[in-house]
Amino acid sequence: MTTLDTNPVQTNKGWTIGLWIAQALLAAMFLMAGATKLTSGSADLVAMGMGWAENAPFLLIKFIGLAEVAGALGLILPAATRIMPGLTTLAAAGLAVIMVLASGLHIIRGEFEVLPINAILFALAAFVVWGRTKKAAIAPRA
Question: Where, per UniProt, does this protein localize (predicted)?
Answer without folding.
Answer: Membrane
